[in-house]
Amino acid sequence: MAAEIRFYRANEQPYGAFSNLYKRSIELDGVIYPTSEHAYQAGKARKPAVRDWLLSAPSPALLAMAAHGLYYWDITPGWSTNKFDRMRRVLVAKFTQHEDLKQLLLSTGEARLVESATVDNEVNRLWGEVNGVGRNMLGLLLMEVRQQLHAQHIKPKTRRPRSKLAGALSAAG
């Protein structure tokens, strides 16, 4: 059985970089976001004013908390079915735009990646595991991106015009 790598806090070495709260900017759809959490949550808001309010949060952790508290009518229609595609695109951007992060992800080999949360709630059991229970969607998507990086030898992407980035995302996803 392959090894297992657990991560949660963005400041943990070396795998804290797998957290969406890890402070590394990414470009998605022509917009530069300070973290992958920002890029992900920006897709959740139905109205630009709500998105701007979310993105003005002073930290990625507070952004996540605010986004989890949105009312139904403030959330993009279809979010519950589209959020995993959004996260996949965010992760492809993160791990193709930063060579060091790409190499870190590839260095995990065939290990099972698990976001291992400490607080037991629905969100933590969806994106990770709490005491071994949960869907671990972030870990699964990271392993999917890792497999794509291995298979397709995706070159690192720097901040380039949208058309080239969109092409890289289409090829990877």
Note down, in words, how this protein is organized.
This protein is mainly alpha-helical and 173 residues long. The protein has a single domain (4-172), classed as YbiA-like (Tetracycline Repressor, domain 2). 49% of the residues lie in helices and 10% in strands. The protein contains eight helices and five strands. The protein has helices spanning 36-42, 48-55, 60-68, 79-97, 99-106, 122-127, 137-152, 162-172, and strands at 4-7, 26-28, 31-33, 112-117, 129-130. The chain has a three-stranded parallel beta sheet. A hairpin with a 2-residue loop joins strand 2 and strand 3 (31-33). Helix 4 (79-97) packs across helix 7 (137-152). It is globular. The two termini are 27 Å apart. The model has no long low-confidence stretch (mean pLDDT 90).
Instruction: Point out poorly predicted stretches.
Output: none
Q: What's the order of the H and E elements?
A: EEEHHHHHEHEHH
What's the CATH H-level homologous superfamily?
A: YbiA-like
- Helix % is 40-55%
Number of strands: 5
- Biggest β-sheet strands, sense, barrel: 3 strands, parallel
Proportion of residues in extended strands: 5-15%
Radius of gyration: 15 Å
Q: Kindly name the structural category.
A: mainly alpha
What is the count of DSSP helices, taking H or I runs of 4+ residues?
Answer: 8
Total domain units: 1
CATH class label:
Mainly Alpha
- What strand line-up does the widest sheet have? 1-4-5
**Overall 3D form:** globular
Distance between the termini: 27 Å
